[in-house]
Specification:
about 140 residues; 5-stranded antiparallel β-sheet; about 40% helix; about 35% strand
Length: about 140
């Protein structure tokens, strides 16, 4: 009688089908989890990129207002992005190769910050502006 039970193959297809269904369910859950994770990564990257471009835009505003060093108030840039800056800061007067001592350049530092949703990016650059008369000409 025990030999008959081992030789009886009724129901094997059902067991194999259930195991395959369980395996396919795990693969589906894994794919959904991976897709959700990747979507979050892409969303964070977009928000960070928007914040970076907002800071670049405010940097250009600060660059265009030189030699004025007034602060730039928070401004809306785009749909959900903002930018602001403390304004260009005068650093020093310096000489440049190819110019004699009667000419000088002014060096400024511009810090600009951009934000989009919860992301914040800052751009910092030093720029040289000139040439200006250094006031050493003889009349």
């Amino acid at each position: 009688m025990e030999g008959d039970i081992l030789r009886n193959k009724n129901g094997v297809a059902l067991v194999i089908a259930l195991i395959m269904l369980l395996l396919l369910t795990f693969i589906g859950i894994s794919a959904i989890s991976t897709t959700t994770f990747e979507t979050n990564i892409v969303g964070n990257e977009r928000v960070g990129t928007d914040a970076f471009y907002a800071s670049e835009a405010i940097f250009q505003v600060g660059l265009n207002q030189l030699p004025d060093t007034t602060a730039i108030a928070r401004r809306k840039i785009g749909k959900d992005s903002y930018g602001w800056s403390g304004g260009p800061k005068y650093k020093e007067s310096l000489q440049r190769a190819g110019y004699d001592s009667s000419w000088a350049f002014k060096r400024y530092q511009i810090n600009a910050t951009g934000g989009s949703f919860s992301a914040t990016k800052e751009v910092e650059a030093q720029v040289s502006y000139g040439p200006f008369s250094a006031g050493t000409q003889y009349n």
